[in-house]
Amino acid sequence: xxxxxxxxxxxxxxxxxxxxxxxxxxxxxxxxxxxxxxxxxxxxxxxxxxxxxxxxxxxxxxxxxxxxxxxxxxxxxxxxxxxxxxxxxxxxxxxxxxxxxxxxxxxxx
Amino acid sequence: xxxxxxxxxxxxxxxxxxxxxxxxxxxxxxxxxxxxxxxxxxxxxxxxxxxxxxxxxxxxxxxxxxxxxxxxxxxxxxxxxxxxxxxxxxxxxxxxxxxxxxxxxxxxxxxxxxxxxxxxx
Lengths: 109, 121
Description:
The structure holds 2 protein chains of 2 kinds. Chain A has strands at residues 4-7, 10-13, 19-25, 33-38, 45-49, 53-54, 62-67, 70-75, 85-90, 99-100, 104-108. Chain A has no helices and 11 strands. Helices cover 0% and strands 53% of the residues of chain B. At the A-B interface, β4, β5 and β10 of A face β5 and β10 of B.
């Protein structure tokens, strides 16, 4: 199975900060990576798919990059609505079942 | 507008059974890949099961042989039959529409609000 790790596990930041979250896969997954945002008590929301494609309706301050085993999610200028937990998910076809990263919580500094 | 509404969660004793439902609107369940994803209290996301548009089904090892995913095309509804429930199955269960590009597996573009299953005596 492909294992996913995320760093940091928690990130404290202020409104206006540039924030970067890293996701690593235990083996190459090409660009088959998605990012989700989840707020407490709510369902996850798709932000990015295929590593860097922005889902419709998602603000352009969110961006994704990377390929192979290392990926990043960047929020260019953190907004109050962005305090949440972020998960990466690999969907490489040669692994048995998709897997999520453990999550990164972005909280207020 | 796409909507997914789960129901059927609740408190159940270990060894018991429960059936979750996910009513969809705004799209056709049978024409899409549909999945269940769960989240234990305070924990991360765990994929549970998927049903392909062609009817093939797949399960996480943790639920294989105990859970069954199915759909009712006439009701545009997805189900998860959960048998032999264990304490470690306690979680919020989300249904989600899965998108599968060529040469890849799937990711999730729409999610329901979730339904809580608590397995406890």
